[in-house]
């Protein structure tokens, strides 16, 4: 077999078989297939697409390129969730402890934030002492003893995806539906859960800009997961404005804790309950989604979900007193209000621009090696549908820099203020 023939076959729009895909991924992982050939291959996939079967083969090849976690030592059903990446998306910090508080095992490996999107690990590290690096042994023991662990992905999990993603990033081939689906699913399947709930973001702040493409991505990931014996749900959600109010690491952790105390932003709470309820349903704890949602609400009201977060923080070496006293989180030196430039209704908030402004403040990284500042970020004061008057505060910047003029401009431009009121819908579709 030769890589050039496989590339040509894909370039000509033909379907590849399993051994051809295995040959490519195996060779690429071991270094016998060069970056330039793999770049040509990903570009051919970008233009010609892949069938569902090819995407499943690609997922399995990347999944088998490294370690596959064996969670069979954990008793009961294990669940996991994944978001395709958004701005202000701190759902894991609520969903994981909430679902775990119902006795469902939540064994999650997360990533770091890159570019305009934040990462769960960076958010958790706003809590002093929180250790994201657990050995596989400790990870499994912790899930068995307290029902939850939230750690970093090991370098040995789907290494082919890691290498391929880095190549896609610099060859304009990230936004290909089969490549995104196989990238996400290879990592999710390698981390061993039985039921997976995917949050597929749609809109300005997401990879998928419209519902049609997001539906294709969701259907494909659900299909791949089911083909591998998993219980799958994908929920399409709006990313035409950031989720909740807070964007930035400590600010988001505080918002997640407030939500577990029953005081979360309406949209954020709605999404957390929806995603949690599907995991509860797929874990077989109840029969209907309504029943599952009612159970989740109860766990917030009785503070069991909050207690579960405190247990997680403590087990991973963090200072759990932060969970009960959010005034302890580090604060940025300056707060700067950004004001509305005219009267009207907020029609749209460019989430990508807000994410980029947060990154510029130091809340995110342009490259994986960049350091981040946990205390900085942005708190939105007005969301889509809000009525504003010229001069009203629309958002507040939390910064450690003296000059924030660029970020102020970015935030002003991110807000579209118009004459007509629009209703924003958060949950667009459920794919099972
Ligand atoms: N997230 C991933 O893990 N992979 C992609 O290709 C896109 C988003």
Protein architecture, described:
The model has no long low-confidence stretch (mean pLDDT 95). This protein has helices spanning 3-11, 18-30, 35-48, 52-63, 92-100, 120-124, 136-146, 159-169, 177-190, 211-227, 249-260, 266-282, 289-301, 304-315, 321-324, 351-361, 405-414, and strands at 78-83, 105-110, 148-152, 195-202, 231-238, 246-247, 334-339, 344-349, 377-380, 387-388, 393-399, 415-418, 427-431. The chain starts with a helix and ends with a strand. The strands form three sheets. Strands 3-2-1-4-5-13 form a six-stranded mixed β-sheet, with helices on both faces. Strands 6-9-11-7 form a four-stranded antiparallel β-sheet, sandwiched between helices. Strands 10-8-12 form a three-stranded antiparallel β-sheet. It is built from 17 helices and 13 strands. It is 45% helix and 16% strand. The protein is an alpha/beta fold and 432 residues long. The longest helix has 17 residues, at 211-227. Strand 4, helix 10 and strand 5 (231-238) form a beta-alpha-beta unit. The protein binds uracil.
